[in-house]
Amino acid sequence: MTTQHEIAILAGGCFWCLEAVFRRLQGVVSVTSGYIGGHVDHPSYREVCDGQTGHAEAVKIEFAPEHIDFQDLLDVFFAIHDPTTLNRQGNDVGTQYRSAIFYTTERQRQVAAATIARLNADNSWGASLVTELVEARHFHDAEPYHLDYYNQHQTQPYCQLVISPKLNKAIKQFGNLLK
Fold first, then answer.
1. Active site includes 49?
2. Residue 142 near residue 34, CB atoms below 8 Å
3. Structure confidence by residue, pLDDT tens digits, 107-116
4. CATH superfamily of 6-177
5. N or C: which end of the chain has fewer CB within 10 A?
6. Catalytically annotated residue among 14, 17, 49, 159
């Protein structure tokens, strides 16, 4: 029996952070860092970092819904970044670091909208979420040196100071979803 996979695209600051966490979840087949939501064809990392292309750093997650639900991905997503800071995650500032869900199906749009509404109603973050909900279009893969960055560079200061704490939080909070 062939497994039907689905694609989720999430932006929540640095794509290295998101990729490191989502790669470790059961049911996740692949995670690709890249750019989405801008107006330039095939942007480079430098162009995106300059903030002039309109793209967000994001991850494209291929997952098997029978092993992990889109809602589970959203729960992890909202736990590992601050969805209340407009165009900012920690020291990373600019529209390329915005919080966004780029839905690929109508069901994803509905689940994401309901999740955002619930988190706002519960005042889970103590402030309103600024997470954008946008239809996915034209995801551009990041340059090869960005792919699987954390696993290849764990001893670098950014990985130790920024990515490792997010990864550890996800492991502690979502251990039941790990591979």
1. no
2. yes
3. 999 999 999 9
4. Peptide methionine sulphoxide reductase MsrA (3.30.1060.10)
5. N
6. 14
